[in-house]
Design brief:
Shape: globular
Strand order of the largest sheet: 3-2-1-4-5-6
Number of domains: 2
CATH architecture of the largest domain: Up-down Bundle
Structural class: mainly alpha
Radius of gyration: 25 Å
CATH class of the largest domain: Mainly Alpha
Strand content: under 5%
Number of strands: 6
Protein backbone atom coordinates (compact mmCIF):
# COMPACT_ATOMS: atom_id res chain seq x y z
CA UNK A 1 0.00 0.00 0.00
CA UNK A 2 2.87 2.36 0.86
CA UNK A 3 4.35 1.88 -2.63
CA UNK A 4 1.04 2.68 -4.32
CA UNK A 5 0.52 5.83 -2.24
CA UNK A 6 4.03 7.06 -3.01
CA UNK A 7 3.30 6.81 -6.75
CA UNK A 8 0.30 9.17 -6.62
CA UNK A 9 0.92 12.85 -7.37
CA UNK A 10 -1.70 14.95 -5.58
CA UNK A 11 -2.03 17.25 -8.60
CA UNK A 12 -3.10 14.50 -10.98
CA UNK A 13 -6.82 14.55 -10.04
CA UNK A 14 -6.94 18.17 -11.21
CA UNK A 15 -5.61 17.13 -14.60
CA UNK A 16 -8.21 14.40 -14.83
CA UNK A 17 -10.90 17.02 -14.17
CA UNK A 18 -9.45 19.12 -17.00
CA UNK A 19 -9.55 16.03 -19.22
CA UNK A 20 -13.23 15.62 -18.34
CA UNK A 21 -14.02 19.21 -19.37
CA UNK A 22 -12.21 18.89 -22.69
CA UNK A 23 -13.74 15.45 -23.28
CA UNK A 24 -17.24 16.83 -22.65
CA UNK A 25 -16.56 19.73 -25.03
CA UNK A 26 -15.32 17.32 -27.69
CA UNK A 27 -18.47 15.22 -27.33
CA UNK A 28 -20.63 18.35 -27.64
CA UNK A 29 -18.86 19.12 -30.94
CA UNK A 30 -19.68 15.64 -32.24
CA UNK A 31 -16.15 14.25 -31.83
CA UNK A 32 -15.08 11.27 -29.68
CA UNK A 33 -14.08 12.27 -26.11
CA UNK A 34 -10.55 10.92 -26.69
CA UNK A 35 -9.88 13.89 -29.00
CA UNK A 36 -10.68 16.16 -26.05
CA UNK A 37 -8.32 14.17 -23.83
CA UNK A 38 -5.49 14.69 -26.32
CA UNK A 39 -6.17 18.44 -26.51
CA UNK A 40 -6.31 18.54 -22.70
CA UNK A 41 -2.85 16.96 -22.56
CA UNK A 42 -1.36 19.56 -24.91
CA UNK A 43 -3.14 22.39 -23.07
CA UNK A 44 -1.80 21.24 -19.71
CA UNK A 45 1.65 20.87 -21.21
CA UNK A 46 1.46 24.41 -22.59
CA UNK A 47 0.44 25.64 -19.12
CA UNK A 48 3.60 24.10 -17.68
CA UNK A 49 2.14 20.98 -16.07
CA UNK A 50 4.13 17.74 -16.01
CA UNK A 51 2.73 14.23 -15.78
CA UNK A 52 3.12 12.38 -12.50
CA UNK A 53 3.70 8.73 -11.76
CA UNK A 54 -0.02 8.17 -11.13
CA UNK A 55 -0.92 9.35 -14.64
CA UNK A 56 1.70 7.08 -16.20
CA UNK A 57 0.44 4.12 -14.17
CA UNK A 58 -3.10 4.83 -15.41
CA UNK A 59 -1.86 4.80 -19.00
CA UNK A 60 0.02 1.52 -18.57
CA UNK A 61 -2.92 -0.18 -16.84
CA UNK A 62 -5.29 1.05 -19.54
CA UNK A 63 -3.19 -0.45 -22.34
CA UNK A 64 -2.76 -3.72 -20.42
CA UNK A 65 -6.52 -4.08 -19.91
CA UNK A 66 -7.17 -3.08 -23.51
CA UNK A 67 -4.94 -5.86 -24.86
CA UNK A 68 -6.49 -8.37 -22.45
CA UNK A 69 -9.94 -7.35 -23.79
CA UNK A 70 -8.71 -7.80 -27.37
CA UNK A 71 -7.55 -11.30 -26.46
CA UNK A 72 -10.98 -12.14 -25.03
CA UNK A 73 -12.58 -11.38 -28.41
CA UNK A 74 -9.80 -12.66 -30.64
CA UNK A 75 -10.30 -15.51 -33.09
CA UNK A 76 -6.89 -17.03 -33.79
CA UNK A 77 -7.99 -18.38 -37.17
CA UNK A 78 -8.64 -14.78 -38.28
CA UNK A 79 -4.89 -14.08 -38.10
CA UNK A 80 -4.22 -16.88 -40.59
CA UNK A 81 -6.28 -15.21 -43.31
CA UNK A 82 -4.08 -14.00 -46.17
CA UNK A 83 -5.51 -10.48 -46.19
CA UNK A 84 -4.55 -10.07 -42.53
CA UNK A 85 -1.00 -11.40 -42.19
CA UNK A 86 -0.18 -10.70 -45.84
CA UNK A 87 -1.77 -7.26 -45.76
CA UNK A 88 -0.06 -6.30 -42.49
CA UNK A 89 3.45 -7.40 -43.48
CA UNK A 90 3.23 -6.11 -47.07
CA UNK A 91 1.95 -2.75 -45.83
CA UNK A 92 4.74 -2.36 -43.26
CA UNK A 93 7.40 -3.14 -45.85
CA UNK A 94 6.03 -0.96 -48.67
CA UNK A 95 5.07 1.94 -46.41
CA UNK A 96 8.51 1.92 -44.74
CA UNK A 97 10.19 2.11 -48.17
CA UNK A 98 7.90 4.98 -49.23
CA UNK A 99 8.58 6.79 -45.94
CA UNK A 100 12.36 6.44 -46.34
CA UNK A 101 12.11 7.82 -49.88
CA UNK A 102 10.02 10.75 -48.60
CA UNK A 103 12.49 11.51 -45.79
CA UNK A 104 15.42 11.35 -48.26
CA UNK A 105 13.65 13.85 -50.52
CA UNK A 106 12.95 16.20 -47.60
CA UNK A 107 16.60 15.91 -46.49
CA UNK A 108 17.74 16.93 -49.97
CA UNK A 109 15.50 20.01 -49.67
CA UNK A 110 17.44 20.98 -46.49
CA UNK A 111 14.29 21.42 -44.44
CA UNK A 112 14.66 21.88 -40.64
CA UNK A 113 15.15 18.62 -38.67
CA UNK A 114 15.14 16.59 -41.90
CA UNK A 115 18.59 17.82 -43.00
CA UNK A 116 20.29 16.26 -39.95
CA UNK A 117 18.81 12.78 -40.48
CA UNK A 118 21.14 9.86 -41.14
CA UNK A 119 19.98 6.74 -42.97
CA UNK A 120 19.67 4.94 -39.60
CA UNK A 121 17.44 7.78 -38.35
CA UNK A 122 15.25 7.45 -41.44
CA UNK A 123 15.02 3.69 -40.99
CA UNK A 124 13.85 4.08 -37.38
CA UNK A 125 11.34 6.84 -38.18
CA UNK A 126 9.85 5.03 -41.17
CA UNK A 127 9.46 1.88 -39.07
CA UNK A 128 7.78 3.88 -36.27
CA UNK A 129 5.39 5.56 -38.72
CA UNK A 130 4.32 2.23 -40.27
CA UNK A 131 2.33 1.22 -37.16
CA UNK A 132 -1.35 2.03 -36.59
CA UNK A 133 -2.73 2.69 -33.13
CA UNK A 134 -4.16 -0.37 -31.38
CA UNK A 135 -5.59 1.77 -28.57
CA UNK A 136 -7.33 4.24 -30.88
CA UNK A 137 -8.73 1.69 -33.34
CA UNK A 138 -10.07 -0.69 -30.68
CA UNK A 139 -11.67 2.17 -28.75
CA UNK A 140 -13.30 3.48 -31.94
CA UNK A 141 -14.60 0.00 -32.85
CA UNK A 142 -16.05 -0.52 -29.38
CA UNK A 143 -17.80 2.86 -29.43
CA UNK A 144 -19.52 1.96 -32.71
CA UNK A 145 -20.17 -1.67 -31.78
CA UNK A 146 -18.15 -2.80 -34.83
CA UNK A 147 -15.56 -4.98 -33.08
CA UNK A 148 -16.93 -8.22 -34.60
CA UNK A 149 -17.77 -6.77 -38.02
CA UNK A 150 -15.77 -7.86 -41.06
CA UNK A 151 -13.77 -4.66 -41.28
CA UNK A 152 -13.32 -4.64 -37.50
CA UNK A 153 -11.83 -8.14 -37.50
CA UNK A 154 -9.53 -7.22 -40.40
CA UNK A 155 -8.32 -4.10 -38.58
CA UNK A 156 -7.77 -5.97 -35.30
CA UNK A 157 -5.94 -8.81 -37.06
CA UNK A 158 -3.58 -6.40 -38.81
CA UNK A 159 -2.93 -4.57 -35.53
CA UNK A 160 -2.03 -7.82 -33.75
CA UNK A 161 0.44 -8.76 -36.51
CA UNK A 162 1.95 -5.30 -36.06
CA UNK A 163 2.13 -5.87 -32.29
CA UNK A 164 4.04 -9.12 -32.84
CA UNK A 165 6.54 -7.26 -35.04
CA UNK A 166 6.80 -4.67 -32.26
CA UNK A 167 7.76 -7.38 -29.77
CA UNK A 168 10.59 -8.50 -32.08
CA UNK A 169 11.81 -4.91 -32.45
CA UNK A 170 11.89 -4.25 -28.71
CA UNK A 171 13.76 -7.48 -28.11
CA UNK A 172 16.40 -6.64 -30.74
CA UNK A 173 16.74 -2.92 -29.91
CA UNK A 174 17.12 -3.53 -26.18
CA UNK A 175 19.26 -6.65 -26.70
CA UNK A 176 16.66 -8.44 -24.64
CA UNK A 177 16.26 -12.12 -25.46
CA UNK A 178 13.42 -14.04 -23.74
CA UNK A 179 14.61 -16.11 -20.80
CA UNK A 180 14.83 -19.90 -21.07
CA UNK A 181 12.00 -19.91 -18.54
CA UNK A 182 9.75 -18.47 -21.27
CA UNK A 183 9.32 -21.95 -22.76
CA UNK A 184 8.31 -23.34 -19.36
CA UNK A 185 5.85 -20.45 -18.93
CA UNK A 186 4.17 -21.17 -22.27
CA UNK A 187 3.77 -24.85 -21.35
CA UNK A 188 2.47 -23.89 -17.89
CA UNK A 189 -0.24 -21.52 -19.11
CA UNK A 190 -1.44 -24.03 -21.73
CA UNK A 191 -1.76 -26.68 -19.03
CA UNK A 192 -3.42 -24.18 -16.69
CA UNK A 193 -6.06 -23.08 -19.23
CA UNK A 194 -8.74 -25.64 -18.16
CA UNK A 195 -8.31 -24.52 -14.54
CA UNK A 196 -8.60 -20.84 -15.55
CA UNK A 197 -11.79 -21.54 -17.50
CA UNK A 198 -13.30 -23.53 -14.63
CA UNK A 199 -12.41 -20.79 -12.16
CA UNK A 200 -14.08 -18.17 -14.38
CA UNK A 201 -17.37 -20.08 -14.17
CA UNK A 202 -17.21 -20.22 -10.36
CA UNK A 203 -16.74 -16.53 -9.56
CA UNK A 204 -20.31 -15.41 -10.30
CA UNK A 205 -21.27 -12.15 -11.97
CA UNK A 206 -20.20 -9.36 -9.60
CA UNK A 207 -17.03 -7.98 -8.11
CA UNK A 208 -15.31 -11.38 -8.04
CA UNK A 209 -15.60 -11.62 -11.83
CA UNK A 210 -14.06 -8.14 -12.15
CA UNK A 211 -11.21 -9.06 -9.80
CA UNK A 212 -10.68 -12.32 -11.69
CA UNK A 213 -10.31 -10.37 -14.94
CA UNK A 214 -7.88 -7.88 -13.39
CA UNK A 215 -5.86 -10.75 -11.91
CA UNK A 216 -5.61 -12.50 -15.28
CA UNK A 217 -4.66 -9.33 -17.18
CA UNK A 218 -2.11 -8.00 -14.69
CA UNK A 219 -0.87 -11.48 -13.75
CA UNK A 220 -0.28 -12.38 -17.39
CA UNK A 221 1.58 -9.11 -17.96
CA UNK A 222 3.77 -9.65 -14.88
CA UNK A 223 4.60 -13.27 -15.75
CA UNK A 224 5.70 -12.36 -19.27
CA UNK A 225 7.79 -9.49 -17.94
CA UNK A 226 9.51 -11.87 -15.50
CA UNK A 227 10.78 -13.99 -18.41
CA UNK A 228 11.95 -10.92 -20.39
CA UNK A 229 8.98 -10.78 -22.74
CA UNK A 230 6.73 -7.79 -23.47
CA UNK A 231 4.25 -7.38 -20.61
CA UNK A 232 1.40 -6.28 -22.89
CA UNK A 233 1.85 -9.46 -24.93
CA UNK A 234 1.24 -11.42 -21.73
CA UNK A 235 -2.07 -9.63 -21.16
CA UNK A 236 -3.08 -10.38 -24.77
CA UNK A 237 -2.16 -14.08 -24.46
CA UNK A 238 -4.08 -14.52 -21.20
CA UNK A 239 -7.10 -12.93 -22.86
CA UNK A 240 -6.79 -15.37 -25.77
CA UNK A 241 -6.73 -18.28 -23.29
CA UNK A 242 -10.19 -17.23 -22.06
CA UNK A 243 -11.59 -16.36 -25.50
CA UNK A 244 -14.59 -18.31 -26.83
CA UNK A 245 -15.55 -19.44 -23.30
CA UNK A 246 -18.87 -18.98 -21.51
CA UNK A 247 -17.58 -16.01 -19.50
CA UNK A 248 -15.54 -14.21 -22.18
CA UNK A 249 -18.22 -11.72 -23.23
CA UNK A 250 -19.39 -11.01 -19.68
CA UNK A 251 -15.80 -10.54 -18.51
CA UNK A 252 -15.13 -8.09 -21.34
CA UNK A 253 -18.18 -6.04 -20.38
CA UNK A 254 -17.23 -6.11 -16.68
CA UNK A 255 -13.79 -4.65 -17.46
CA UNK A 256 -15.05 -2.07 -19.95
CA UNK A 257 -15.63 0.84 -17.56
CA UNK A 258 -12.39 0.50 -15.61
CA UNK A 259 -10.42 0.06 -18.84
CA UNK A 260 -11.94 3.24 -20.29
CA UNK A 261 -11.03 5.17 -17.14
CA UNK A 262 -7.39 4.09 -17.23
CA UNK A 263 -7.12 4.88 -20.95
CA UNK A 264 -7.83 8.53 -20.15
CA UNK A 265 -4.35 8.55 -18.63
CA UNK A 266 -2.91 7.20 -21.87
CA UNK A 267 -4.42 9.93 -24.07
CA UNK A 268 -3.43 12.64 -21.57
CA UNK A 269 0.14 11.36 -21.45
CA UNK A 270 0.49 11.57 -25.26
CA UNK A 271 -0.51 15.23 -25.18
CA UNK A 272 1.96 15.89 -22.38
CA UNK A 273 4.90 14.17 -24.09
CA UNK A 274 6.39 17.43 -25.32
CA UNK A 275 5.71 21.05 -26.26
CA UNK A 276 5.87 21.84 -29.99
CA UNK A 277 7.48 24.93 -31.56
CA UNK A 278 6.99 26.33 -35.07
CA UNK A 279 9.63 24.02 -36.55
CA UNK A 280 7.94 20.99 -35.00
CA UNK A 281 4.55 22.09 -36.33
CA UNK A 282 6.00 22.49 -39.84
CA UNK A 283 7.55 19.00 -39.73
CA UNK A 284 4.27 17.49 -38.50
CA UNK A 285 2.29 19.24 -41.27
CA UNK A 286 4.66 17.82 -43.90
CA UNK A 287 4.62 14.28 -42.50
CA UNK A 288 0.81 14.21 -42.42
CA UNK A 289 1.04 13.59 -46.17
CA UNK A 290 2.14 10.07 -45.23
CA UNK A 291 -1.21 9.55 -43.51
CA UNK A 292 -3.00 9.73 -46.86
CA UNK A 293 -0.48 7.30 -48.36
CA UNK A 294 -0.94 4.97 -45.39
CA UNK A 295 -4.72 4.66 -45.80
CA UNK A 296 -4.47 4.47 -49.58
CA UNK A 297 -1.94 1.64 -49.41
CA UNK A 298 -4.13 -0.32 -46.98
CA UNK A 299 -7.07 0.08 -49.37
CA UNK A 300 -5.04 -1.03 -52.38
CA UNK A 301 -3.60 -4.10 -50.62
CA UNK A 302 -6.88 -5.24 -49.04
CA UNK A 303 -8.74 -4.93 -52.35
CA UNK A 304 -6.03 -7.05 -54.00
CA UNK A 305 -6.55 -9.66 -51.27
CA UNK A 306 -10.21 -9.95 -52.41
CA UNK A 307 -11.72 -7.90 -49.58
CA UNK A 308 -14.87 -6.14 -50.77
CA UNK A 309 -14.42 -2.43 -51.32
CA UNK A 310 -16.71 -1.27 -48.47
CA UNK A 311 -15.01 -3.16 -45.58
CA UNK A 312 -11.62 -2.57 -47.23
CA UNK A 313 -12.28 1.18 -47.30
CA UNK A 314 -13.61 1.24 -43.74
CA UNK A 315 -10.67 -0.78 -42.39
CA UNK A 316 -8.26 1.51 -44.27
CA UNK A 317 -9.79 4.62 -42.70
CA UNK A 318 -9.78 2.97 -39.26
CA UNK A 319 -6.07 2.11 -39.62
CA UNK A 320 -5.21 5.52 -41.06
CA UNK A 321 -3.41 6.90 -38.01
CA UNK A 322 -0.03 6.80 -36.34
CA UNK A 323 0.59 4.67 -33.30
CA UNK A 324 1.51 5.04 -29.66
CA UNK A 325 4.10 2.40 -30.51
CA UNK A 326 5.76 4.99 -32.73
CA UNK A 327 6.37 6.94 -29.51
CA UNK A 328 7.87 3.85 -27.87
CA UNK A 329 10.16 3.25 -30.87
CA UNK A 330 11.27 6.89 -30.72
CA UNK A 331 11.82 6.77 -26.95
CA UNK A 332 14.01 3.67 -27.32
CA UNK A 333 15.92 5.32 -30.18
CA UNK A 334 16.49 8.50 -28.12
CA UNK A 335 17.68 6.44 -25.13
CA UNK A 336 20.20 4.69 -27.41
CA UNK A 337 21.28 8.08 -28.86
CA UNK A 338 20.17 6.95 -32.33
CA UNK A 339 18.00 10.02 -32.93
CA UNK A 340 17.60 13.55 -31.52
CA UNK A 341 15.04 14.30 -28.78
CA UNK A 342 13.24 16.77 -31.09
CA UNK A 343 11.73 13.82 -32.93
CA UNK A 344 9.99 12.62 -29.76
CA UNK A 345 7.90 15.81 -29.69
CA UNK A 346 7.27 15.48 -33.44
CA UNK A 347 6.06 11.91 -33.01
CA UNK A 348 3.80 12.78 -30.05
CA UNK A 349 2.13 15.61 -31.96
CA UNK A 350 1.90 13.52 -35.14
CA UNK A 351 0.13 10.71 -33.26
CA UNK A 352 -2.29 13.16 -31.61
CA UNK A 353 -3.17 14.99 -34.85
CA UNK A 354 -3.62 11.68 -36.69
CA UNK A 355 -6.16 10.65 -34.03
CA UNK A 356 -8.16 13.83 -34.61
CA UNK A 357 -8.13 13.36 -38.39
CA UNK A 358 -8.99 9.66 -38.12
CA UNK A 359 -11.86 10.40 -35.71
CA UNK A 360 -13.36 12.91 -38.13
CA UNK A 361 -13.03 10.61 -41.16
CA UNK A 362 -14.46 7.62 -39.26
CA UNK A 363 -17.47 9.67 -38.23
CA UNK A 364 -18.14 10.81 -41.81
CA UNK A 365 -17.18 7.55 -43.50
CA UNK A 366 -20.55 6.60 -44.99
CA UNK A 367 -21.07 10.08 -46.48
CA UNK A 368 -17.60 9.99 -48.01
CA UNK A 369 -18.03 6.43 -49.28
CA UNK A 370 -21.34 7.29 -50.97
CA UNK A 371 -19.71 10.27 -52.67
CA UNK A 372 -16.67 8.36 -53.98
CA UNK A 373 -18.19 4.88 -54.32
CA UNK A 374 -17.98 4.79 -58.13
CA UNK A 375 -14.29 5.71 -58.11
CA UNK A 376 -13.53 3.29 -55.29
CA UNK A 377 -15.23 0.41 -57.12
CA UNK A 378 -12.62 0.76 -59.88
CA UNK A 379 -9.91 -0.19 -57.36
CA UNK A 380 -11.68 -3.53 -56.84
CA UNK A 381 -9.90 -5.32 -59.67
CA UNK A 382 -11.22 -8.75 -58.65
CA UNK A 383 -14.94 -9.44 -58.51
CA UNK A 384 -16.13 -10.40 -55.03
CA UNK A 385 -19.43 -11.54 -53.66
CA UNK A 386 -21.86 -8.81 -52.65
CA UNK A 387 -23.09 -8.63 -49.04
CA UNK A 388 -26.62 -10.00 -49.01
CA UNK A 389 -26.26 -11.78 -52.36
CA UNK A 390 -27.18 -15.14 -50.84
CA UNK A 391 -30.20 -13.83 -48.90
CA UNK A 392 -33.63 -14.74 -50.22
CA UNK A 393 -36.04 -11.90 -49.37
CA UNK A 394 -39.06 -13.48 -51.09
CA UNK A 395 -42.20 -12.98 -48.99
CA UNK A 396 -40.17 -11.82 -45.97
CA UNK A 397 -42.28 -9.62 -43.69
CA UNK A 398 -39.85 -8.82 -40.88
CA UNK A 399 -36.09 -8.33 -40.58
CA UNK A 400 -34.40 -8.75 -37.20
CA UNK A 401 -31.00 -7.04 -37.19
CA UNK A 402 -28.77 -8.30 -34.40
CA UNK A 403 -29.40 -11.91 -33.37
CA UNK A 404 -28.21 -11.85 -29.78
CA UNK A 405 -30.55 -12.65 -26.89
CA UNK A 406 -32.97 -9.80 -27.61
CA UNK A 407 -33.00 -10.44 -31.35
CA UNK A 408 -33.51 -14.18 -30.86
CA UNK A 409 -36.46 -13.52 -28.55
CA UNK A 410 -38.05 -11.14 -31.06
CA UNK A 411 -37.50 -13.67 -33.88
CA UNK A 412 -39.18 -16.50 -31.94
CA UNK A 413 -42.11 -14.30 -30.90
CA UNK A 414 -42.81 -13.28 -34.50
CA UNK A 415 -42.45 -16.81 -35.88
CA UNK A 416 -44.98 -18.04 -33.30
CA UNK A 417 -47.42 -15.53 -34.81
CA UNK A 418 -46.92 -16.92 -38.31
CA UNK A 419 -44.73 -14.10 -39.59
CA UNK A 420 -42.08 -14.71 -42.25
CA UNK A 421 -38.87 -13.58 -40.51
CA UNK A 422 -35.15 -13.63 -41.23
CA UNK A 423 -32.31 -12.51 -38.97
CA UNK A 424 -29.11 -10.64 -39.77
CA UNK A 425 -25.87 -10.44 -37.77
CA UNK A 426 -22.26 -9.60 -38.63
CA UNK A 427 -20.79 -12.23 -36.28
CA UNK A 428 -20.31 -15.45 -38.26
CA UNK A 429 -20.32 -17.55 -35.06
CA UNK A 430 -23.74 -16.18 -34.06
CA UNK A 431 -25.05 -16.81 -37.58
CA UNK A 432 -23.90 -20.44 -37.44
CA UNK A 433 -25.35 -20.94 -33.95
CA UNK A 434 -28.73 -19.45 -34.93
CA UNK A 435 -28.88 -21.56 -38.09
CA UNK A 436 -28.24 -24.70 -36.02
CA UNK A 437 -31.09 -23.63 -33.72
CA UNK A 438 -33.47 -23.37 -36.68
CA UNK A 439 -33.51 -19.59 -37.08
CA UNK A 440 -32.95 -18.40 -40.65
CA UNK A 441 -30.02 -16.04 -40.15
CA UNK A 442 -27.53 -14.48 -42.56
CA UNK A 443 -24.22 -12.69 -42.14
CA UNK A 444 -24.49 -8.98 -42.93
CA UNK A 445 -23.34 -5.65 -41.51
CA UNK A 446 -26.49 -3.54 -41.07
CA UNK A 447 -24.36 -0.43 -40.40
CA UNK A 448 -23.03 -0.66 -43.97
CA UNK A 449 -24.46 1.66 -46.62
CA UNK A 450 -23.18 -0.82 -49.20
CA UNK A 451 -25.44 -3.55 -47.85
CA UNK A 452 -28.65 -1.48 -47.89
CA UNK A 453 -28.00 -0.04 -51.35
CA UNK A 454 -27.47 -3.55 -52.76
CA UNK A 455 -30.50 -4.92 -50.94
CA UNK A 456 -32.92 -2.37 -52.49
CA UNK A 457 -35.25 -2.72 -49.51
CA UNK A 458 -37.97 -0.41 -50.84
CA UNK A 459 -38.82 -3.00 -53.51
CA UNK A 460 -39.24 -5.93 -51.09
CA UNK A 461 -42.22 -7.23 -49.10
CA UNK A 462 -40.63 -6.27 -45.77
CA UNK A 463 -43.06 -4.41 -43.53
CA UNK A 464 -41.03 -3.99 -40.35
CA UNK A 465 -37.40 -3.98 -39.24
CA UNK A 466 -36.22 -4.60 -35.68
CA UNK A 467 -32.83 -3.11 -34.74
CA UNK A 468 -31.63 -5.28 -31.85
CA UNK A 469 -27.92 -4.43 -31.88
CA UNK A 470 -26.68 -3.71 -28.35
CA UNK A 471 -24.74 -0.61 -29.45
CA UNK A 472 -26.95 2.46 -29.84
CA UNK A 473 -24.59 4.14 -32.34
CA UNK A 474 -24.84 1.10 -34.62
CA UNK A 475 -28.65 1.19 -34.37
CA UNK A 476 -28.73 4.91 -35.20
CA UNK A 477 -26.42 4.45 -38.16
CA UNK A 478 -28.50 1.52 -39.45
CA UNK A 479 -31.75 3.49 -39.01
CA UNK A 480 -30.39 6.44 -40.99
CA UNK A 481 -29.20 4.16 -43.80
CA UNK A 482 -32.52 2.29 -43.92
CA UNK A 483 -34.51 5.51 -44.24
CA UNK A 484 -32.07 6.87 -46.84
CA UNK A 485 -32.59 3.70 -48.89
CA UNK A 486 -36.29 4.56 -49.23
CA UNK A 487 -37.83 2.16 -46.70
CA UNK A 488 -41.21 3.50 -45.50
CA UNK A 489 -42.25 0.62 -43.24
CA UNK A 490 -42.09 0.44 -39.46
CA UNK A 491 -38.75 0.63 -37.69
CA UNK A 492 -38.22 -0.48 -34.09
CA UNK A 493 -35.01 -0.35 -32.05
CA UNK A 494 -33.71 -1.27 -28.61
CA UNK A 495 -31.95 1.10 -26.21
CA UNK A 496 -30.30 0.80 -22.82
CA UNK A 497 -30.81 4.32 -21.45
CA UNK A 498 -33.70 6.83 -21.65
CA UNK A 499 -31.53 9.59 -23.16
CA UNK A 500 -30.83 7.37 -26.19
CA UNK A 501 -34.49 7.20 -27.20
CA UNK A 502 -34.70 10.75 -28.60
CA UNK A 503 -31.64 10.34 -30.85
CA UNK A 504 -33.00 7.03 -32.18
CA UNK A 505 -36.34 8.63 -33.01
CA UNK A 506 -34.50 11.46 -34.80
CA UNK A 507 -32.73 8.80 -36.88
CA UNK A 508 -36.06 7.54 -38.22
CA UNK A 509 -37.05 4.92 -35.66
CA UNK A 510 -40.82 4.69 -35.01
CA UNK A 511 -40.71 3.01 -31.62
CA UNK A 512 -37.95 2.42 -29.07
CA UNK A 513 -37.86 -0.49 -26.63
CA UNK A 514 -35.83 0.29 -23.51
CA UNK A 515 -34.47 -3.06 -22.38
CA UNK A 516 -34.33 -2.16 -18.69
CA UNK A 517 -37.61 -0.21 -18.50
CA UNK A 518 -39.61 -2.81 -20.43
CA UNK A 519 -38.16 -5.81 -18.59
CA UNK A 520 -40.78 -5.54 -15.83
CA UNK A 521 -43.66 -5.42 -18.31
CA UNK A 522 -42.18 -8.42 -20.10
CA UNK A 523 -41.96 -10.33 -16.81
CA UNK A 524 -45.62 -9.66 -16.01
CA UNK A 525 -46.73 -10.62 -19.51
CA UNK A 526 -44.70 -13.82 -19.38
CA UNK A 527 -46.05 -14.74 -15.93
CA UNK A 528 -49.68 -14.44 -17.06
CA UNK A 529 -49.12 -17.46 -19.29
CA UNK A 530 -48.76 -19.58 -16.15
CA UNK A 531 -51.08 -17.99 -13.57
CA UNK A 532 -53.87 -15.42 -13.31
CA UNK A 533 -53.41 -12.24 -11.29
CA UNK A 534 -56.71 -11.40 -9.57
Amino acid sequence: MEFMLSSIDYKDPLWIAVAFLFGALSRALGLPPLVGFLVAGFSLNYAGAQGGEFLNEMADLGITLLLFSIGLKLKIKELLRTEIWGGALAHMLIFSIVSIATLLLLKQMSLPLFEELSFLNMLILSFALSFSSTVFVVKALEERGDFLSQYGQIAIGILIIQDLVAVLYLGISQAKVPSLWAVALVVLIILARPLMIKLSTKVGHGELLLLFGLSMALGGASLFEMVDMKADLGALVFGVLLANTAKADELSKALFGIKELFLVGFFLSIGMAGLPDMTTLLVVAILLILLLIKSGLFLLLLSRFKVKIYPASKASIALGNFSEFGLIVTIVAVSQAWISTDWLVVMALLVAVSFVISSTLNKRFDDLFSRFQTSLQKIQAIEVKEDGAAINFSDVQVLVCGMGRVGSGAYDYLVERQKKVIGLDFDENIVKMQSVNGRETYCANVSSSDFWSFMDIKNTTIECIFLCVSNVEANKEAANLIRQSGFEGKLSAVSLYPDEEKSLMESGVDTVFNIYTEAGAGLAQHSQKFFTIK
